[in-house]
Amino acid sequence: MRYCENCGAVLNEDDRFCRECGTEAKPTATEVTTESVTESAASKQETSKIADERFEAFMDSAKDVSGKAVDAVKVFASGVQTKVDKEMEKQKAQREAEKQQQLKLEEERKKKEEAAKKRINSTSGINQSEMWSWLKKAATRKHYYTEDVNPLTVEEFAVKVQTKLDENHVPAAIEKRTIEWDRSGLKEEIYGIKPLTNAANPLSCLLQFCHIGKFSFVEEKTFITPPDLPEVPGQRKELDPKTKARMAFMLYGIIAALAGLILMTFSVGTGLVCIAIGVILILVGYSAIAEQNRINAHNETVRLQELAWEKAWNDWQNNIFLHSFQEDINGQVSRIFEAAFECIEMVCDEEFQNAPTSFEKESVDLNNLEELIARRKKDYR
Prior knowledge:
Elements: E1 2-3, E2 10-11, H1 29-118, E3 130-131, E4 136-145, H2 154-167, E5 172-181, E6 186-195, E7 203-212, E8 215-224, H3 241-247, H4 249-263, H5 268-321, H6 332-352, E9 358-363, H7 366-376
Parallel strand pairs: 3-5
Antiparallel strand pairs: 1-2, 4-8, 4-9, 5-6, 6-7, 7-8
Helix pairs in contact: 1-5, 2-6, 3-5, 4-5
């Protein structure tokens, strides 16, 4: 129950003024407390709202700053990654080029080895256009004398021998070919006896016929056919000591360039000078490394040439040279030569109708030829 403090009239709970005298009615303690709580809550809500707005503004600002920082880091990282990717691609391309070079060298080596293998027990390993005079295995020389000068030419004599071979069914042919003597550039047309057989023939038999006055000379010379040698190996190269020393300049250059980058934060001029010196040292070191790579590639080529050279020599010595001193499986080649020599003897008897005035025969020992080969092998390089 509420009463007006001025006139004592009864007031309702919601009356703000007295209905009798018009005096303002004071609020009760409950109303005061409710209003205070309401005002306090409103004040707190306003404060909380302001704090939330400030917090949101702070977070937006922080996000903006962090976003810019992240973007800057991403740009920097992207630049670094691009440089790293380029360097990795460059190194990958270099490794791929080196790999292709190694594959090419390996392929060439295999081809040369295969070619060398094919020479074994075949005539593909002997030289058909060259003759080494010191590889003469045997020789027979006969001198005939006639009262009149014999008009028979070399070509006519060769035709007579071929006719006699055909009459006796000897599987051989008189072959005219051009050969070069001892790698001297001196070439000569010669007549040789060529066995018509699939058996490996490591021998070249020359038939020589000539006149000096009333004397006629008939010579049969047997040579061991030299190897068909590959390209002569080059000379290996050594890295110059000064070049070796220049290779270390690249490391010094990198250190100087890095130092220059650091010094640029303190002194741009000093930093640029260090970077310039570093670049110069790197270029000098790089040129030395490139020179070393060229020398290594050259030496690798020489190594492969030496392998092919030694392979050709060894195949020839082990299969063709030794085979020339041995009978083949059925003695076919040696018997064809013997039959051909008999035919030459028949032609001489028919042409000159008398015995030779002189007869000389010689042969060379296997050991002597092996010693000659060992001594002269280096000369042919």
